[in-house]
Amino acid sequence: MRYFSQTLSWLFLPLFVPIYVLLLILFDPSNLDFYFNPDARWALLKMFLIFFTFAPGLTMIFMRRYQLIQTIEMDDRKDRFGPLFIVALYSSAAFGLFYVKDEMHLLPIYIYLLPIIGLVNALVFFGFNFWIKISLHSGTMGMAVGFLFVHAYQYSFFPKIYLIWAILASGLVIGARLQLRKHTSLESYLGWLVGFGATIILSSLGYTLINSI
Asked: Is 161 exposed, middle or buried (0-12, 13-18, 19+ CB in 10 A)?
């Protein structure tokens, strides 16, 4: 059971979850946003991998190498401030790059929303980290469910089964973190609720704004 929980924790690292969400959206057969330019899907995926996975991951390895954090898993609450700031920084850079490169602003709104959600949630969790070792795994899963929920509401063609998968995965990840005793129940459930709530608000505001233009 412990091995299963550890595997889940690594599969659903906070650096991987945004990529899973993007894969579900970009490569869903019913998504016609890039129907006439399929290469754009892969180009966007590569950019997200750089800014949300590779760059922050390598930076955290660098921080561990020079003992700026004690462990890659950041078991100590104090180890989380630097990585959260790094995630906020790379999210800001990703949004800026998309905004500059997409001069006509033709990209779907969710491409802009994901970096904003990453930035805001990183800052929110940064604040909570002063008080409690809030679960970043649970928070990222809450973000995924919140984003897919709003996306499914906005795009009626989006398969609702993806949302169900995300909810089930959330439960498994929370259970895994509790089983490994990485977090208390409060830290895990609070993380999920904060990630879900902040993402619901940001996503709803983003879609409302774009639909009003």
From this structure: exposed
Each residue's pLDDT tens digit, 29-88: 776 665 557 788 888 999 999 999 999 999 999 998 888 888 777 878 889 999 999 999
Burial call 38-69: b when 16+ CB within 10 Å, e when fewer: eebbeebeebbbebbbebbbebbeebbeeeeb
Q: How many domains does the chain have?
A: 1
Q: Which domain holds residue 183?
A: 2-212
For 9, half-sphere exposure in the C-beta direction (CA atoms, 13 angstrom radius) is 22
Report pLDDT for 158. 87
pLDDT < 50 positions in the chain: none
Structure tokens, 92: 């800001």
pTM of the model: 0.91
- For the chain, count helices (H), then strands (E): 9, 0
**Spatial contact of 116 and 51, defined as CB atoms under 8 Å apart:** no
Question: What one-character DSSP code corresponds to residue 182?
Answer: S
Cα four-point dihedral sign 169, 173, 178, 179: positive
Distance CA 125, CA 158 (A): 29
